[in-house]
Amino acid sequence: TWLAALAAMLVPLRSSGSSLRRAGVVRTIPRPIRRWRQRVFSEICRESASTSPEISSADMSGVLEGLEPKELWGRFGELSAIPRPSKEEQKVLAWLKTIAEENKLQWEQDSVGNMVIRRPGSAGGENAAPVVIQGHVDMVTEKNNDVAHDFSKDPITLLREGDWITAKGTTLGADNGIGVAAALALLTMPTTTKLPPLECLFTVDEETGLTGAKQLKGTMLKGKTMLNLDTEDWGSVYMGCSGGGDSTISLPLTTAKTASLKPGEYEWYEVTCKGLKGGHSGMDIATGRGNSIRLLARSLETVRRAHQAKLSLIKGGNKRNAIARCVDDTWHDTWPRTRNRVNTDPVHMCTHADMHACTHTHTHTCMHQTHETTSPPAHETRGMTEMTPRDPRDMRVTRTTHMTHT
Q1: Around Cβ 312, how many Cβ atoms within 10 Å?
Q2: Parallel, antiparallel, or unpaired for β 158-161 and 131-136?
Q3: In the chain, where are the structural domains located?
Q4: Where is the Peptidase M20 dimerisation domain (predicted)?
Q5: Which positions are catalytic?
Q6: Where are the beta strands (DSSP E) in 162-316?
Q7: Confidence label for 212 from pLDDT (cuts 50, 70 and 90)
Q8: For residue 163, which of 33, 1, 308, 297 has the smallest C-alpha distance?
């Protein structure tokens, strides 16, 4: 019953599939689950309505106003205002210490930064076995290309879209901010709430290598049962998980200085592939989502086979655990040589019609949009379907400007 009551707080929370939305969107409370969650959660916070501190509208930023459970969403609102990139968790850890001391709770921190806050059992749960609740305090820091946001100092701007809480052009930090908020909500419950002894473990630097968890010493914890609140799918309890590994691949690369190119020999293009869903490279890797870097690289390879082309710059984000949803590429080629070449593969959007429309202007923007209607050939996908008829993606290739040599 302890585990059911504690886990009930996280049942209504889920994240969607894109690299931005997986870490940046939380479904507030789906209606069928809402009633069940309220019934179970009320068993551990029935008396808190009259004794819990009110969450001000300022703390909620107006966006989280009225959401239940109030204790959880209030903490999530406060957490969203604290910058917390991986390896820069000092501010959020200081905030956790303040909460512990304000509520007269014991806390402990190791040399890596991991922190444990302990709450004794209450209202009949004093002699129960302690339960460890774990989450990580850092977040994925990704933003759209047109958004000016400094994750090291700017708060997250929350948005509310129907039943969804999102962020304005950035990741939200629901991974794992919502788990941290749930743990804090339990830690600060009134002492009249029936709870077992709790050890809330907050680890650091999960997103860039699980550094905190790897260096955690077992002597820091007394509990033998742990709930990890950094799950992937809502409504599920995991008894274990797979691991991960890194592969380093070295390939020969020939480079040349731009100054060595003869003026007038090449035309410069900037190509953008965007509009894909993206996702997490672990949980979404088998769902058939297109990777914008792979798709654009495949398109440029088609051009390269036809005539000489050189890649100048490619930008597809800086997170290795995210499926790229938008990528920018600058390249130059001898386009006039193959003006009559048409690529009919629907996955390749660098078509003759698109590029020809942009050939004779310096400022024209060409946008091509298509929906995939058939799966790409197996030899192109290497066993991975980039797009499927059941879940079409938009892919756009844009030549934004004609660059000249200086």
Answers
A1: 15
A2: unpaired
A3: 2-228, 258-399
A4: 274-326
A5: 138, 206
A6: 164-167, 198-203, 225-228, 267-273, 279-280, 309-315
A7: very high
A8: 33
The top-scoring range by mean pLDDT among 106-120, 162-176, 359-373 is 106-120
Cα separations in angstroms, 392 against 21, 79, 274: 18, 35, 13
Q: Centre a 10 Å sphere on the Cβ of residue 371 and count the other Cβ atoms it contains.
A: 11
- Check pLDDT > 80 for residue 317: no
Task: Give the architecture-level CATH label for domain 2-228.
Answer: 3-Layer(aba) Sandwich (3.40)
Q: At 356, which helix (H) or strand (E)?
A: helix 352-357
CATH of 258-399, one of 3.30.70, 3.40.1130, 2.20.28, 1.20.1070: 3.30.70
**Count of all residues that appear for the chain in the document:** 406
- Residues 101 and 97: their CA atoms lie apart, in Å, by 6
Place of tokens 């020969």: 252
Q: What are phi and psi of 331, to 5 degrees?
A: -150, 165
> Three-state SS for 182?
helix
Tell me the pLDDT tens digit for each residue of 297-316.
888 888 778 777 777 778 77
Record the pTM.
0.60
Q: Position of tokens 């019934």?
A: 39
> How far is CA 348 from each of CA 90, 351, 370, rounded to the nearest angstrom?
45, 7, 10
> Facing residues of 201 across strands?
116, 134
User: How would residue 292 be classed by pLDDT, with cut points 50, 70 and 90?
Assistant: confident
Q: Is the pLDDT of residue 244 over 60?
A: yes
> CB-based contacts of 200: which residues, under 8 Å, 6+ apart?
116, 117, 118, 119, 132, 133, 134, 183, 184, 186, 187
What are the tokens at 46?
């029935």
